[in-house]
Amino acid sequence: MLQLEQVSKKIEGQSIVQNVTIEITEGQCVGLIGPNGAGKSSLIKLISGLEEPSAGSIYLKGKSVNQWKTKKIAKSVAVLTQEGLAPYPISVYDAVLMGRYPHLGFFQRESQEDYDKVDHVLEITGLKDFKSQMLDTLSGGERQRVAIAKAMVQEPELLLLDEPTTFLDIGHQLNVLRLVQEWQERENLTVVMVLHDLNLAAQFCEKLILMNHGEVVKEGSSEDIIAEETLRQVYHATPEIIRHPKSNIPQILLSPQ
Ligand SMILES: Nc1ncnc2c1ncn2[C@@H]1O[C@H](COP(=O)(O)OP(=O)(O)OP(=O)(O)O)[C@@H](O)[C@H]1O
């Protein structure tokens, strides 16, 4: 689904992404982790075509991203940032409907099929009762759910999430990640998400890519990555590693000592 070959990005002479070579297969959920400034958001911008690499190639479904038409990328790739949608004074319904725009031709109006898709997505995201409410009156968690609903009606093949849970309480964090997980399983969606919470990343992602100083340090399962020595080297912290009592997945505990 997605291949990066020796991808680098330099801004004003400074390397912010260096020689990144990764492969993500269709239907995979991949967690992009690493310390502040590691280059995670920059990599998401490169994959989404928002920025161009200084060197290397990015292939989406076997075709170089810079050969894709902008509209085709807008249809196939959805990007969600930590801020979610800007709080414009438009209704939840209209905000979600905007997700259909990449599918419409010039001056083409939405069809009944587009409205039906919006209704269906509002239902499965639990937003039906909010559909007339203005976006700028919603809480951060509700707005993030609207952002997911908008991405869902877009029907992308690749979903990129940049710290989608940052401003959310634990209930809403789980809600957002479960919505994404159910969607991924239902549609065989490919997901790449930046997460700072290593415990959530280990629980929700089948593969983790650990970045530091613009480079990929290590990639693998949570078993490979959530390991004391690996985390100590990259984060300069020594977490306690325990097993989740239900899933047995490695989790970290932090303490002052
Ligand atoms: N437009 C830019 N101009 C100059 N430097 C930039 C620019 N964009 C990113 N950088 C630098 O590149 C490095 C990587 O930034 P990036 O936002 O990708 O990191 P990140 O891993 O997402 O960090 P965080 O976890 O703190 O969000 C940082 O040192 C940042 O200052």
Notes on the structure:
Residues 2-238 form the ABC transporter domain. There is one protein chain. This protein is of the alpha/beta class. The chain has a single domain (2-253), classed as Rossmann fold (3-Layer(aba) Sandwich), CATH 3.40.50.300. 33% of the residues lie in helices and 26% in strands. The protein has nine helices and twelve strands. The strands form three sheets. A six-stranded mixed beta sheet has the order 6-7-8-3-9-10, with helices on both faces. Helix 5 (140-154) runs parallel beside helix 6 (170-187). The longest helix is centred in the last third of the chain and has 18 residues, at 170-187. The N and C termini lie far apart (43 Å).
SSE layout and pairing:
Layout: E1 2-11, E2 14-24, E3 29-33, H1 40-47, E4 55-60, E5 63-64, H2 70-76, E6 77-80, H3 92-97, H4 112-124, H5 140-154, E7 158-162, H6 170-187, E8 190-194, H7 198-204, E9 207-212, E10 215-220, H8 222-225, H9 228-235, E11 240-243, E12 250-253
Parallel strand pairs: 3-8, 3-9, 6-7, 7-8
Antiparallel strand pairs: 1-2, 1-4, 4-5, 9-10, 11-12
Helix pairs in contact: 4-5, 5-6
Bound molecules: adenosine-5'-triphosphate.
InterPro entries: AAA+_ATPase (IPR003593), ABC_transporter-like_ATP-bd (IPR003439), ABC_transporter-like_CS (IPR017871), P-loop_NTPase (IPR027417)
Pfam families: ABC_tran
GO molecular function: ATP binding; ATP hydrolysis activity
